[in-house]
# Entry
Amino acid sequence: MGRRTPVRANLDALFALPTAAVTLQTAAGFNPTGVGSVCYRQAEGAAFAQTQTDVVALLDADDGPDVERSDDAFGFTWLLARHDPNDMAGLVTDLHAVNTTLEAQGFGPGLLCSLVAFTDAAGRRLGLVYLYKQGTFYPFVPLERQRRDNVVEIQIRDLVKNDLPVEPQLQRWMPVWGAPGL
Amino acid sequence: MASTRFIKDTGLTARMTLVMFLLGALFVALIVGLMYAFESLAVFIGIAGLGIAFYQWYNSDKMALRAMRAREVAPHEAPELHGMIDRLCAMADMPKPRVAISYTDMPNAFATGRSPNRSVVCVTTGVMDRLTAEELEGVLAHELSHVAHRDVLVMTVASSAGIIAGMVTRGAQFGGLGMMGRSRNSNSGGAAGLMIALLVSLVVYAISFLLIKLLSRYRELCADRSAAFLTQKPSALASALTKITGEIASIPTKDLRSAQSMNAFFIAPAISGASLKTLTSTHPSLEERLEQLAKVAAELGRPMDGGFPTP
# Structure
């Protein structure tokens, strides 16, 4: 809407996450928790409900834990997938599947973001957020009482900027308080 | 691969383009008519008229906020409102406008500003009190699509011919232009030129008045469509419109009169009781808007081929 030719979401960028995860592990001590989620707007009507059921069924087809669905205060839906913390590739494949299925069914405009959670030894939480519409990533480090650790976020950005397309505009680094999995 | 359910409404686009073309043609006709009547003075009148239009557009955000006695709010003052707009802007991939609140009980919202980077979205406390979060989001999406489509610029450009024609008509009323007419000709030539200019201006003013209202209604329908596709909830916007329109009709006119100059940018017009409604209103009728939203809902609900195979 804001620009004449919309940026085509490059969902393959998600597959760069395992590389970035290794970088984070070695350089910053942030380990993946094996939890990732996709945030989208549920469209009205039976077509979307059917698509969503199909996606959940697809992801639940493996032996791992089932997908969890939750709604947030802003009216967005989160699909949360759990994997073994070492299986970053499997997690990313799940997130990719959710994104591409919704996109293929014409619900791409309803996708907001995808998130992969990390944590370090001190218990700090980090989310790498993928903005669907911009096709870029940014770090989100929540602290108590709706504050965020901007210093760590900037450090993380500089660490992963060679592995991932990072969102250059800081005002697009939207906080996602209370995101499932963080 | 990437497909979308957002289908262009070709009929609406064609009608809108035609109206804009007619407004442009009207502008040219006015300038030609004025040049015939006043020669060199026409350029001056034209520039002055465009100057006024430009000033209105350039300062639209400040003027609108002052007219509505609205105040800009920071994210910590209205976290829910800001969070909602943050998410909508991320979904629409547009820069975030400033956010303002107008402390009035009249349920309404508007967006204004010279460009998407310098725009402001304002909601009244009345609209926030009456609508649920879902409905408020639909209203905000409607206003954001006005911003993204640069409707303030479009409407200002569209109304410039009308502004110039109005200036000439009013100038002629006070006789100011008669003295500045063709000085090298005889008096009768000047009077004839003045009459032609007055006639042309009056006709242009009348036609552009109707065309601008028509264009405004089309822009509203466009904004409704985009808002419904952005939030994926046409029915939330529909219920918000029903609520706002119903509430506005039942509020005493005394409060509303002061807000009349802002009508073109409101989500629902704040004038109750209208005659000649279909021709001169800035907003489409509620029925028309609801019908369109129902169409959007049908498009969202239809199954698509070539996607995920159903088990």
Q: What stands out?
A: The first strand of chain B starts at residue 70 and ends at 72. Strands of chain B lie at 70-72, 98-102, 109-113, 119-124.
